[in-house]
Automatic annotation (TrEMBL):
<feature type="domain" description="Major facilitator superfamily (MFS) profile">
    <location>
        <begin position="209"/>
        <end position="417"/>
    </location>
</feature>
<dbReference type="InterPro" id="IPR020846">
    <property type="entry name" value="MFS_dom"/>
</dbReference>
<feature type="transmembrane region" description="Helical">
    <location>
        <begin position="78"/>
        <end position="94"/>
    </location>
</feature>
<dbReference type="InterPro" id="IPR036259">
    <property type="entry name" value="MFS_trans_sf"/>
</dbReference>
<keyword id="KW-1003">Cell membrane</keyword>
<feature type="transmembrane region" description="Helical">
    <location>
        <begin position="170"/>
        <end position="191"/>
    </location>
</feature>
<keyword id="KW-1133">Transmembrane helix</keyword>
<dbReference type="GO" id="GO:0022857">
    <property type="term" value="F:transmembrane transporter activity"/>
</dbReference>
<comment type="similarity">
    <text>Belongs to the major facilitator superfamily. Set transporter family.</text>
</comment>
<protein>
    <submittedName>
        <fullName>Sugar efflux transporter SetB</fullName>
    </submittedName>
</protein>
<feature type="transmembrane region" description="Helical">
    <location>
        <begin position="363"/>
        <end position="382"/>
    </location>
</feature>
<feature type="compositionally biased region" description="Polar residues">
    <location>
        <begin position="407"/>
        <end position="417"/>
    </location>
</feature>
<dbReference type="GO" id="GO:0005886">
    <property type="term" value="C:plasma membrane"/>
</dbReference>
<feature type="transmembrane region" description="Helical">
    <location>
        <begin position="335"/>
        <end position="357"/>
    </location>
</feature>
<feature type="transmembrane region" description="Helical">
    <location>
        <begin position="301"/>
        <end position="323"/>
    </location>
</feature>
<feature type="transmembrane region" description="Helical">
    <location>
        <begin position="212"/>
        <end position="237"/>
    </location>
</feature>
<keyword id="KW-0812">Transmembrane</keyword>
């Protein structure tokens, strides 16, 4: 890299910011309402909706892995364009049919690819900003994360407004257009001059120890509860509490808005504070959220619960990745992927879990079940802490260099996020 790379890379941040902002808005516009589309427009049962959402997640896992490998070889914008074009076509296709078989084909063939868009954008950001001098390289990823959360604070309300005026057909069309617009700022990015750096890790250099397995299981349970709760919450609000669809958008927006200051406040924690204790506190707050939302019936109370929800998601999401990296020293890439996989697995199984629980037990009981999953995850993470108590535990610090993975998507999203 030449000395001018730093300043050149710094000028690429605005394009990336705009793309991440537009992607966040596109995801969050449709995220809270895709479940309601399945119930209201396609007349699917809760279990059928759950299967639909889980197939989106399963397809996303496969496509994200494939596009990620392709990006590692070329460091090009091509994979990002694929990840944006497929959901744009997919949401347009949803306007043409409500047949369940076709909906499942659209989920697998088109919508799942949209889950690869977020990690692809962050992979591009890492490639273009790695050579930056000054603050661009250090702060690029945190700034992009903040923009993502801000997009999720506004997107659901935009979706609610479009839904109120144009119905589900209009919302799907606007969402498709938003995904297409994400690609425009990427066209202004110059071609990467070098492939992304790859960390050389011996295949036998790391072992899946009990603390690692317990921590991974704990984060998987947390993410399963998080996404299952996102599936159940819209139905609980509109069916059990008989509130307007637009109220769902408001709740999701409040949650995403809270994530921004909650995540940024972690930077102020003293270095001596151990991150695992903070993560455990975040998980306990999440358990409290599910208990509170299950007994809340008015909008002021429901809005208050979203403060707890957003805080918990911000804490676990911001510190979880660096905690896993500390558990597997010398294998940052493998540790980051492991944490990302806990979200993907949670997305994959949460649709069926939430759908089956809602159909068998009801929406309020489903939220309480999510609280139980969070509590079990908290216990497992505490057990992992006990097992590694003899070793040193790292202190709170921002994630080094950022990670080009999709685990940073707003936890206030539904499964499609």
């Amino acid at each position: 890299m030449t000395s001018g790379t730093g300043s050149t890379s710094g000028t690429r941040l605005p394009q990336l910011l705009v793309s991440v902002l537009l992607l966040g808005i596109a995801d969050s516009m449709i995220g809270p309402y895709l479940v309601l589309f399945g119930v209201d427009e396609a007349h699917l049962s809760p279990l059928q909706v759950g299967v639909f959402m889980s197939l989106v997640a399963a397809s996303g896992l496969v496509v994200s892995t494939w596009l990620g490998r392709h990006y590692d070889r070329s460091a090009s914008r091509g994979p990002a364009f694929i990840a944006l074009a497929a959901p744009a076509v997919g949401y347009l296709a949803l306007t043409t049919t409500t047949g369940y078989a076709l909906l499942l084909l659209i989920a697998v063939g088109l919508l799942g690819a949209g889950l690869a868009a977020f990690p692809q954008l962050f992979a591009l950001a890492r490639t273009h900003l790695d050579g930056s001098a000054g603050s661009a390289a250090r702060r690029g990823t945190p700034v992009l994360r903040s923009v993502w959360s801000l997009a999720w604070a506004t997107g659901p309300m935009i979706g609610a407004a479009v839904l109120a005026r144009q119905g589900y057909r209009g919302l799907l069309i606007v969402t498709a257009a938003a995904f297409a617009l994400v690609a425009l700022p990427l066209l202004l990015l110059p071609a990467a001059t070098a492939p992304p750096r790859r960390t050389a890790v011996s295949r036998t250099g790391t072992r899946m120890t009990r603390p690692i397995l317990l921590a991974a299981t704990a984060f998987t349970l947390f993410h399963t509860a998080m996404i299952s709760g996102s599936v159940a919450l819209p139905l609980y609000v509109t069916r059990t509490l008989d509130r307007a669809d637009s109220d769902v958008g408001l709740l999701f927006s409040v949650c995403a808005l809270v994530e921004v200051p909650a995540a940024l406040s972690l930077v102020l924690l003293p270095a001596r504070v151990r991150k695992q204790r903070v993560i455990l506190l975040g998980m306990l707050v999440f358990v409290t959220y599910f208990l509170l939302v299950a007994v809340s019936s008015t909008m002021p109370l429901l809005i208050g619960t979203q403060v707890a929800r957003g805080t918990a998601i911000a804490v676990v999401g911001a510190l979880g990745i660096t905690y896993m990296q500390d558990l597997i020293p010398g294998a940052t890439g493998r540790a980051t992927t492991l944490f990302a996989n806990t979200l993907t697995i949670g997305s994959l199984i949460s649709g069926v879990v939430a759908g089956a629980a809602a159909q068998a037990l009801g929406y309020r009981a489903t939220l309480l079940l999510c609280g139980v999953l969070s509590a079990v995850g908290c216990v497992l993470l505490a057990s992992a802490r006990q097992l590694r108590s003899a070793g040193s535990e790292s202190s709170v610090s921002p994630a080094p260099g950022g990670a080009g993975t999709g685990e940073e998507s707003s936890g206030c999203a539904s499964v499609s996020a």
